[in-house]
Amino acid sequence: MIKYKCPIPAKIGITALTKMEALPGNEFRFFVSGVYGTVKLHFGKEITMKNENGKEIDTVLERKKEREAWLDKIRGSLFGGAVGDALGYPIEFFSESEIFLKYGAQGIREYALDKESGKALISDDTQMSLFTADGILVADTRLSMRGVGGNPHDYVADSYMDWLLTQEQSFDKAQKMLRKSGGKHISWLLDVPELYSRRAPGNTCISALRGGTPGCMDDPQNNSKGCGGIMRVAPLALRYDFHGEIKELDREGAEIAAVTHGHPLGYMSAAALVHIINRIVYPGREMTLKEIVLEAKETMTELFSGEPYLSTLVRMMELAVLLSENGEGDLDNIHRLGEGWVAEETLGIAIYCSLKYQDDFSAGITAAVNHGGDSDSTGAVTGNILGALCGYEAIEEKWKQNLELSDVILEMADDLSAWRRGRGRGNPSRRRS
Ligand SMILES: [Mg+2]
């Protein structure tokens, strides 16, 4: 158990509980998302949660066995994204000649550790992915506690405001502000000092959030198609098992990207990524990765029918599939897909690397970062896909050593896997705001 939050939330599979107080008889009282609840611990048995009216909400331990089936993939995706991010972050702004001059003809293949901390540093991609996860968990917690809740993207938008705080304030100053904020800030991640660090955050994300009004597809904040929307959206795909209703989940992924990125290619690419990762984790039927990518393309065509930029997205996905089978060098192929600064190129490069190296996580993320473009984001998204496909256990040990905040990342993955939503129950589109 990590030090930043009390042990109870992880045990019951939800985060964002605050103001914990112990009551007699193994009961604890807590405050979450505007409501008080209690939890009673029956050690060695089940944990039963009740709300203030005494109504039993749910248990997590009864689903523990069920959870194991998904945990490896969910951990793999969140952790794998962080690995690709950390591998690519030191060369994000390097040209290709600078990369190969510094790291040799094969490019960077090991973490370049930060001299001060000795860690492989994550960038804003992983930071924001953690805040995405936390927003989703707060949304689910509120739904469970009160029976009503907003769509995940409403809470994710609040969570991004918490991330903005970590980019603009020191840890100490933020802690003082939090005590006076009256519950405005929702994320336990604000108690993690290491997150108060600017890692080349995207200007679009910062300026959109400073504006104070979250964007959405119907009311975009700007016309940016930067990759800041797609690089943080994987946790949504990990959380819900939708089966036939996956299109609604894809749409929610687009809305989460549209909080800060208003160009259709910025959010449609995020929707396609959600589709791919969700199908890998919760396949429903046996499908190859190529079949999943082609299904995602078809679903985007239906979901965004009539959208003028749809053909660009479709062509990018088709090209990525084609190039992954041509047997030519990665750098030449990646050049044909772009540099990854914009979302559809990030998606294209990640699909290409994942398809080509679907049995080899390390080879996939290495190919994904060694180019002159947005290496940390193409590495992160490739790591999200390949991590889900291969699973956490298959990720080489060397990537698990020295990764910054690896305990927080795994804790968040575990929370995403707990209290898994079955078909329909967790459908964000059925919620009331
Ligand atoms: Mg970054």
CATH-defined superfamily of the largest domain? ADP-ribosylation/Crystallin J1
Quick check: average pLDDT? 85
- List SSEs in N-to-C order: HEEEEHHHHHHHHHHHHHHHHH
List ligands, each type once. Answer: magnesium ion
- Can you name the CATH architecture of the largest domain? Orthogonal Bundle
In the CATH hierarchy, what is the class of the largest domain? Mainly Alpha
Number of strands: 4
In total, the number of domains comes to 2
Low-confidence stretches: 1-19, 40-47, 56-62, 422-433
Q: Structural class, please?
A: mainly alpha
Radius of gyration: 21 Å
| Helix amount | 40-55%
What's the main sheet like?
4 strands, antiparallel
**Biggest sheet: strands side by side, in what order?**
1-2-3-4
CATH topology of the largest domain: ADP-ribosylglycohydrolase fold
Apparent shape: globular
In whole angstroms, the N-to-C terminal distance is 33 Å
Beta-strand fraction estimate: 5-15%
What does this structure look like?
The protein is mainly alpha-helical and 433 residues long. The chain has two domains: 7-59, no CATH class; 63-428, Orthogonal Bundle (ADP-ribosylglycohydrolase fold), CATH 1.10.4080. The protein contains 18 helices and four strands. The chain has helices at residues 7-12, 64-88, 96-103, 124-146, 152-168, 171-180, 203-210, 234-239, 246-258, 264-281, 289-303, 310-323, 330-337, 343-356, 361-369, 375-390, 397-400, 406-417, and strands spanning 18-23, 27-32, 35-41, 47-51. It has a four-stranded antiparallel beta sheet. Magnesium ion binds next to α4 and α16.
